[in-house]
Write a structure and sequence with these properties.
By secondary structure, the chain is of the alpha+beta class. It has 3 domains: 118 residues, Acyl-CoA dehydrogenase/oxidase, N-terminal domain (Butyryl-Coa Dehydrogenase, subunit A, domain 1, Orthogonal Bundle), CATH 1.10.540.10; 99 residues, Beta Barrel (Butyryl-CoA Dehydrogenase, subunit A, domain 2), CATH 2.40.110; 139 residues, Butyryl-CoA Dehydrogenase, subunit A, domain 3 (Up-down Bundle), CATH 1.20.140. It has 12 helices and 10 strands. The longest helix is centred in the last third of the chain and has 29 residues. It starts with 16 loop residues before the first helix and ends in a 7-residue tail after the last helix.
């Protein structure tokens, strides 16, 4: 784990005074979050107290758009928070990213129907979760296959959504369904028609507790139906996922460096061996390159450039790959001790693999990006 977090903040970002104050506050919170990461992973314990602490310290309100009652903080600020959180505990970063994506997303999508209902709920500390991924739709979570049945006041959903991070403490869900074959988004409050099925005996990111939700006659009210994302929509999930993998890579590389310096072989630190120097150089340079590309995408999003959203996909692909390589390097440097439960290296390795599988997976992204580069057809995610 990194000993200092300020070096993970975008050095080229022009942060506002309120953003700088929150980043300073974040540095004070991160050591305690990092200290709990290992035990949360071992016990698959959802870090609820830390998530609520982020809310109480003002991070949720900062990222709600100003027109909805928040501070309208920048994407660059958001990225710095996500990456630093992920370096400390990627489970905290993941659940917080999904919470913001669902909460801010609902507040924006339902402006025309509910006004500021979900914005106020977010500001008062309610918890949100994304219930979008279907068991049969794979990574294509924006193209739901479950058709909702029309009733008097809306629609009824019978089915399931999987990998709902933080579902066990959620008050509100962002749910998508198909209506006449087209995607539609709704806000749904947790009630007794929704059940949590504990499926999360995960390889990595155990503390996200991303369970399966069952919907048995759940009513999707017309008044809580949202529109489709527009040009001003805050894409916090797409923007945040690269930062989660970058934070994992930061911690994995830091673990490799720390171990190489303290391990003595034939009277010399392992860090003096040329293969270690070469391998650390390769991972370090690619990590810095991936981070720079992602930070540029965040700045483009702040400038309102449409290209930023395609850049987030490329940034995720790069970040996922370098996180796995950084974690594998830590295993090589750590040797057998890296597999011990007490070592953070085994957790970094598992968490890095999980990042690759989170939608959109590296395989899906490779297909989409490849078609764009080869100009063999535009594929929509």
């Amino acid at each position: 784990m990194t000993d200092s977090f300020s070096n993970l903040f975008d050095p080229d970002a022009d942060f506002e005074a309120t953003e700088l104050a929150l980043l300073t506050k974040l540095e004070d919170l991160l050591p305690a979050i990092a200290d709990e990461a290992q035990i949360n992973d071992e016990q698959a314990s959802l870090p609820e107290a830390r998530l609520r602490e982020l809310h109480s310290e003002g991070f949720d309100a900062a990222l709600l758009p100003a027109e909805l009652g928040g501070a309208g903080a920048s994407y660059a600020f958001y990225g710095s928070v996500v990456r630093a959180l992920a370096a400390a505990d990627p489970a905290v970063a993941t659940v917080w990213t999904m919470h913001l994506g669902a909460g801010v997303g609902l507040a924006q999508l339902t402006r025309g129907t509910l006004g500021d209902y979900y914005a106020k709920a977010l500001l008062q500390g309610d918890r949100f979760a994304n219930a979008l991924s279907e068991p049969t739709s794979g990574n294509r979570f924006l193209n739901p296959q479950q058709e909702a049945r029309a009733v008097e006041n809306g629609y009824v959903l019978e089915g399931a959504k999987r990998f709902v991070s933080g579902s066990e403490i959620a008050d509100h869900l962002l749910v998508n369904v198909a209506i006449d074959g087209k995607p539609a988004f709704f806000g749904v409050e947790i009630d007794d028609t929704i059940t949590v099925t504990p499926i999360w005996d995960a390889l990595g990111l155990r503390a996200t507790r991303s369970q399966l939700l069952g919907f048995a006659g759940t009513v999707l009210l017309n008044e809580k139906r949202g529109g489709l994302p527009d040009a001003d929509h805050r894409n916090y999930v797409g923007a945040g996922l690269p930062g989660i993998s970058l934070g994992i890579a930061d911690s994995a590389l830091a673990s490799a460096i720390k171990h190489s310096k303290k391990t003595i072989i034939l009277g010399q630190p392992l860090a003096r061996q040329q293969w270690v120097e070469f391998a650390v150089t390769d991972v370090h340079v690619r990590l810095e390159a991936a981070a720079a590309y992602w930070q540029r995408a965040l700045r483009h999003a702040d400038e309102g450039r449409e290209q930023a959203f395609a850049e987030f996909d490329r940034a995720k692909y790069l970040a996922n790959k370098v996180a796995v390589d950084a974690a594998q390097l830590a295993v090589r440097v750590g040797g057998g001790s890296g597999f011990l439960r007490t070592s953070p290296i085994q957790r970094h390795l598992r968490d890095a693999q999980a990042g690759q599988l989170m939608a959109y997976s590296t395989e899906v992204l490779a297909g989409v990006i490849g078609k764009q580069v080869l100009e063999t057809g535009q594929e929509n995610l």
